[in-house]
Write a structure and sequence with these properties.
The complex is a heterodimer of chains A (107) and B (119). Helices cover 0% and strands 51% of the residues of chain A. Chain A has 107 residues and is mainly beta. In chain A, 35% of the residues are buried. Classes of the chains: A mainly beta (107), B mainly beta (119).
């Protein structure tokens, strides 16, 4: 089973700053099956990035994804007030779907 | 417009059974896998299992195998998550999500169903 680890647990930043979130996998994975989600308080998760790099429909270009092998990154170039939320990475593999524990981005 | 609409909040007693639903619209429900995800209070996301409505093939996370049953009725574009005997530890929000054909990411989500199990 592939385990996903996210860091930091909490990221305290201000609007306009850059956020860099890390997701590490316990084994090498295909970049095609690494995704990122945003979850605001009281809401369902929302797909941001799929296939490591590709933005989902309607996602602004301040969100970008990168990485390979075991190290993946979600970058928010300039934080907007609505971006303060929890972010989860997720992998899909032969044994199913695995989520990371999440990174909370707060003010 | 693709939508997944889940059934409402439930309050149950330990030992009771429950079946919650997730109805899809705006796309061909039969050909996309539907996943169920648990979120316990204040915690992260846990994949429970996934079903292909076209032939009702289901795959379960080892952590949930034997604890829940996932099913679907493609004639009414609805997926289900079922418990035979609830426990207090089943208290959580349960989400359904559509799995993308291309990336297997969950590209559309239901609004979530809060299940509270308390005596």
């Amino acid at each position: 089973e592939i385990v996903l680890t996210q860091s930091p647990g909490t990221l305290s930043l201000s609007p306009g700053e850059r956020a860099t979130l890390s997701c590490r996998t316990s084994q090498s994975i295909s970049s095609s099956f690494l995704a990122w989600y945003q979850q605001r308080p009281g809401q369902a998760p929302r797909l941001l990035i799929y296939g490591t790099y590709s933005r989902a429909t309607g996602i602004p270009d301040r969100f970008s994804g990168s990485g390979s092998v075991t190290d993946f990154t979600l970058t928010i170039s300039r934080l907007e007030p609505e971006d303060f939320a929890v972010y989860f990475c997720q992998h899909y593999g032969s044994s199913g779907i695995t989520f990371g524990p999440g990174t909370k981005v707060d003010i | 417009e693709v939508q997944l609409v889940q059934s409402g909040a439930e309050v149950k007693k330990p030992g009771e059974s429950l079946k919650i639903s997730c109805q899809g619209s705006g796309y061909n429900f039969s050909i996309y896998w539907i996943a169920w995800v648990r979120q316990m209070p204040g915690k992260g996301l846990e994949w429970m299992g996934t079903m292909y409505p076209g032939d009702s093939e289901a795959r379960y996370s080892p952590a949930f195998q034997g604890q829940v049953t996932i099913s679907a009725d493609k004639s009414i574009s609805t997926a289900y998550l079922q418990w035979r005997s609830l426990q207090a530890s089943d208290t959580a929000i349960y989400y359904c999500g559509r799995q993308s054909m291309f990336s297997s990411a969950l590209d559309y989500w239901g609004q979530g169903a809060l299940v509270t199990v308390s005596s």
